[in-house]
Write a structure and sequence with these properties.
11 helices; mainly alpha
Amino acid sequence: MESGNVLFALGLTVFAGLSTGIGSLMAFMSKSFDKRFLSAVLGFSAGVMIYVSLVEIFPKAKESLSVVFDAKTGYVYTVIAFFAGIAIIALIDNLVPSFENPHEFQHIDQEQKGFIEDKKLKRMGVFSAIAIAIHNFPEGLATFIGALEDPTLGISIAVAIAIHNIPEGIAVSTPIYFATGNRKQAFMYSFLSGFAEPIGAILGYFLLMRIFNDAMFGLIFAGVAGIMVYISLDELLPTAEAYGEHHVAILGLIGGMVVMAISLLLFA
């Protein structure tokens, strides 16, 4: 791997991860959110991730594994790795209690009304930061590996994950800010939770670079596709619907697919 490609991939991962800070700033700067717009944007992000996973990443993984094995065996391994990726991220999700899991999303207004005690609010924010950090490890690896394979694909993944990290930043910073009144502390927790993405990318790179070959690439890429589909269906779409109307979220989803399809056609 060329050092320039690695630095570019790492830069995209940093951008995607630290966008939790954007969510934190949004929480501080605005007393109310345009929920329909946020719903459409989250649906758009889901559309990008689902389309690119099934139309671009999965076929590339299958192609890579078919070079090492025969076509049928390569296909079988691709399918196994895809569902293994879903299983890994689902296991991580289930290991985090729903109260402290920001992906079991609650409306911000409900959070503010439902948790009155300062200690409970701060505890919720801190545990949300920890939970997001845990989830962001595989997301960081997904962005990093995608950018190494194809810079254009990496940019698409990074933008989609960055959009989905914004409400996570809100989920971390809002309860901590209401508990402490300290904007800097709330922003710090939000910022650090997103920093897990580049850390996940760096650890994955150093652990895998010595054994990185067509087979390893295919398995990881198929797993990444599974992770991104799970994130879209389990996190992005439910959150989009929680913030807005069902049809707004779906139109955003379709719009994301259309934009991703056009961009892939233009750069094909």
